[in-house]
Amino acid sequence: MNPIIGVLFHWLGGLAAGSFYVPFRGVKRWSWETAWLVAGVFSWIIAPWTFALINTKDVVAVLSETPAETWFYTYFFGAMWGLGGLTFGLTMRYLGMSLGMAVALGYCTVFGTLIPPIFKGEFHTKLIEPVSGRWVLAGLLVCVVGIVINALAGKTKEAEMSAEQKKTTVKEFNFKKGILVATFSGIMSACFAFGLAAGDRIGEISREHGTAALWSGLPVLIVVLSGGFTSNFIWCLILNIKNRTGYEYLAAKQRHSAHEKDATVPENPTDAPAMEMTGQASHAAKGSDRRIPLLFNYLFAAAAGVTWYFQFFFYSMGETQMGDYKFSSWTLHMASIILFSSIWGLFLGEWKGASPKAKSLLFFGLGLLVLSTVVIGYGNYIGGQAGH
Fold it and tell me: What are phi and psi of 293, to 5 degrees?
C-alpha cells in the first residue's frame, strides 16, 4: 500500500479520461452512434481482455471460478452505469452544460464514494470514528465544492455568450425535469464504482492464481465493462436503425449528412467534461465531399477507445494502493477527470476570450480539486500508518 503512488495512478487515469475525446476529432463523416460503438468495442471488450491476458494469471480460469452472484452484480452494475450515461444528454438539455454537469457529477462523486462503505456497514467505523476517515470525508467535501465552483465558472462563461449561442443550450430548460434526470443519471453512473466493489471477489481469486496485487483488478474490469457494453451496444444499434446509419461501418461514402443533434450530446457524466472541452468529432459531411476515410476513422476511434480504457486500467492499479479507503478512489477519479479535461480546454482555446472572473473561478475550482486529492491521499496515508 502506497497512497502517494495510488494518487499518481488516479491522476494518470484522469488524464486518460480527460483526453480520450481528442482522437475523436480525427473521425470524419460518421454519426455519433457509429463512432461511439466502434470505440466502445475497443474500450469495453478488446482492451480489457488484452491487458488482463497480458498482466494477470489464468484470467479465463479466474472468471470461470467466480461465483455466479458476483458475476451477476458486477455485470449488472456495469449495465446500470451504461444507462446512467445514456440519460446524461437529457441532463444537458434541461439544465444546460454547467448546471447539468455540476448536479450529475456531484451525485456521481458522492454516491460512488459513499455507497460502497455504507452498503458494507463500514461508514461509521471507517469514515467517522478514525481521524484518517474524517480526512477522507473532508477530501470528498472539498471535491464536491470544487465541482460546484467549476460549474460556476462555466456558468459565468456561458453568460458571456451571445444570445444565439445561449439559445442552443437553454431552449429546453426545465429545472424540475433536469434535476430528476440528473439525479437518475448521476446515481446510475456511480454504479461503476458499485460494480468494482461487487467484483472484489474476482480480484481475490486472481491473486490466488498468482497475479500480483497491482494487476488484480483487471479481470474485474472485463465483467463491469461487458455490462456497460451491453447497454451502449443496444442503444447505438437502435440509433443505427432509427437514423439509417448502420451502413457507415463499411461504406466508402456518406449517403446523407450525419444528424448533428445526437453527435453533440455527451453520453456519460465521467466523460462529459472531456466532450465539452476537447470539442466534437466532425461527423457531418462538409460540402459535396461525402467520402468516409474508413481506415483512419477506425484507427482514431480505436485510439479513443483504448485511451478511454486506460482511465480504469490506472484506476484499478491506484485502488490497490489505497488500503482500507479504496472506495475513496472514486472521488480521486472524478476530481482528476475534471482537472485534466479542463486543462485540455485551456490548451485548445475553449476559454479564450472568457472574462477574468470566469477564469479565476475556473482556476480556483481546479485548485480545490487538486487539494481534494491531496487531502484524500493524506487520509489514506495516516490510515495506513495507523494500521501498522
Answer: -75, 80
